[in-house]
Amino acid sequence: MSEAQSVTGKQGIARELTAFQHNILVILGKEPMYGLAIKRELEDYYGTEVNHGRLYPNLDELVGMGLVEKSELDKRTNQYELTDDGYAAVMDQIEWSLSKLVTDDERAEELRDLVDEQQ
Known about the structure:
Number of strands: 3
CATH topology: Arc Repressor Mutant, subunit A
Radius of gyration: 16 Å
Protein name: PadR family transcriptional regulator
Structural class: mainly alpha
Strand order of the largest sheet: 1-3-2
Distance between the termini: 39 Å
Helix content: 55-70%
CATH superfamily: Winged helix-like DNA-binding domain superfamily/Winged helix DNA-binding domain
InterPro entries: Tscrpt_reg_PadR_N (IPR005149), WH-like_DNA-bd_sf (IPR036388), WH_DNA-bd_sf (IPR036390)
Strand content: 5-15%
Shape: globular
Number of domains: 1
Domain Transcription regulator PadR N-terminal: 24-89
Order of helices and strands: HHEHHEEHH
Low-confidence stretches: 1-7
């Protein structure tokens, strides 16, 4: 398999992720985190409780896809970190979303202002 086919295959997998899984990747883009910290970030975003039975199977699936790396902080706590492929998946989603959203110079300027506010 060529490198281009490998990248396309990974993009295809990443494009099949749920919104919940994409949100996990975005959260991990900030810094590596342990499960409960990810859970809190998601709860802040959704404004409701996120069940452990939803979070951890999704984290395990992302690890299995190679988008997230799991390591042991201590005997009871795992840390999750975005891989390069996970970062590429986040960027692919952002690029695709922006390509559909930006239709004229005025909207492009609004997006630039939004990005500037975040920095």
